[in-house]
């Protein structure tokens, strides 16, 4: 595994008073039992109960723990529960399991994948495990704390078929401003400056067409660019036309795309014009399909003629 960039740890909240610290430790002692329950029993009040046990607001860092937990198919992940993604994985076993299923369905052994926006590395780990020793994954993450978490989780699972890149994927080769996050959603960073942003860094940007110019294949693309998906796709037009990879967008939401003046319709039209059809993915739900939320969060795009996946969809 090769890595660019230096790891940076994120700060914790100040040490609380003695009585508060005792209460925090008492709550933390209940986390393993709560995780065991949450992974096995799903009901309407579960989310609220977990929020009472582990705050999700500005106090999340104070109540958070860093633990190594079982993941899927014998894999493990080290997660920080002060981070939204890490907290979901700790208590529920996976973040976006329907998307992980799409990875497994479309990355057979020996395949080559790209992970744009690694977060804690859960997708990177699954992609690398699915590709196997004869395959490869090229992972991109401009925010140093998240890159560090991804690197640690790859090492934890002994996965050496990943090239880690501390850079953002976009529609141009050069530099850009990246707005990171050390709050509850540490995976919510995005390109370009924003009013009042306090965690801005300069980062290198690259087009996938440039990065993969000498590659021989590309089977799968997972993109979580926090609204910049269309920029990533525009910078990968040659890759898409040449290799026709399956493409998974995990943050396919209007509010997120609005940051870049685009929309779900524009992204789907871009890929439809290149011979792709879309399959909307959703987490398992007890609600009838007609009552499920229509603000999609994930979309799997397959080239015309490809076999249909088995993931749950709406």
Description:
The model is unreliable at 4-11, 184-191, 193-198 and 308-314 (pLDDT under 50). This protein has 2 domains: 18-92, no CATH class; 97-303, 3-Layer(aba) Sandwich (Rossmann fold), CATH 3.40.50. The chain is built from 12 helices and 13 strands. It has helices at residues 18-40, 46-53, 60-63, 84-92, 97-106, 122-131, 144-156, 208-211, 229-234, 237-243, 254-257, 264-272, and strands spanning 66-70, 76-80, 112-116, 136-140, 162-165, 168-169, 174-179, 190-191, 200-206, 220-223, 246-249, 276-281, 298-303. It is an alpha/beta fold. It is globular. 34% of the residues lie in helices and 19% in strands. 41% of the residues are buried. Strands 5-4-3-10-11-13-12 form a 7-stranded mixed β-sheet, with helices on both faces. Strands 6-9-7-8 form a 4-stranded mixed β-sheet.
What sequence of helices (H) and strands (E) makes up the elements? HHHEEHHEHEHEEEEEHEHHEHHEE
Average pLDDT value? 85
Rg, Å, rounded: 19 Å
Global morphology: globular
Q: Major sheet: order of its strands?
A: 5-4-3-10-11-13-12
Briefly note the structural class of the backbone: alpha/beta
CATH class of the largest domain: Alpha Beta
Per the CATH scheme, the topology name of the largest domain is: Rossmann fold
C-alpha termini separation: 37 Å
What is the CATH homologous superfamily assignment of the largest domain? Vaccinia Virus protein VP39
Report strand %: 15-25%
Count of individual beta strands? 13
The CATH architecture of the largest domain would be: 3-Layer(aba) Sandwich
Sheet bearing the most strands, described?
A: 7 strands, mixed
User: How many alpha or pi helices?
Assistant: 12
Helix content: 25-40%
Query: What ranges have pLDDT less than 50 throughout 5 or more consecutive residues?
Result: 4-11, 184-191, 193-198, 308-314
Counted up, domains total: 2
